[in-house]
Amino acid sequence: MKAIQWVLSLVFIIQMYLAMVVLAVVFLIPMLLHPAGAHAACKTYCWWVLFTARWMVGLKTEVRGTPPTDEVMVAAKHQSFFDIIIIFYHLPRPKFIMKRELLFAPILGQYAYRLGCVPVNRGKGAEAIKKMVAAVQSGQARPGQLVIYPQGTRVAPGEKRSYKIGTAALYQALGQACVPVAVNVGAFWPKHGIMRTRGTAVVEFMDRIEPGLTNDEFMARMEGDIEPLSDALLKEARS
Which residues contact 70 (CB under 8 A, 6 or more apart)? Predict the structure, then answer.
């Protein structure tokens, strides 16, 4: 049975990336003409991945809480590519803080740019934070929900990694509420590897953190919201 699931997972992954190429080509002209074309392409792709994950490998999704529709920052736990798909699909106008290198990826980089994603050089400390804040404040990021991964990278379930201060810098600079997001996606779609496991991947939007906290208060509140709930969702998935 495990061997069959592995084969189904491999087929799922292959068709998922083929679909990415096909949709990128189909929506290329609309994307170049208007950002709405890029948005439609990515929403269509996310729907396809969610649909095929369900019927090909038995991986369902559940969104809890209320996805925000206004101008907020979304601080999400990041365990695999699948949580990006789920979050993007359920937000009305998402754009991401992303690695700068992705801007230079063929097709993908152009789509990200048209969506209003904000590139940042990881590993450059204070300089990266300043550039990230400046890019967002300058209007480079179009109106919508700004998604940031506070730990800066994918973190496998059970792995511990510190939360980066850049999230607090954005919180202070933007003066917007922050919506924490917990996930258990990594239990079914790992950071590395082919196997996709049957079950229900959960993404939960939590109560928003309103503006006005200090950096230390905000960081403690954000991590204190995200980590325990992500652990609880992981325990739920494994049970």
Answer: none
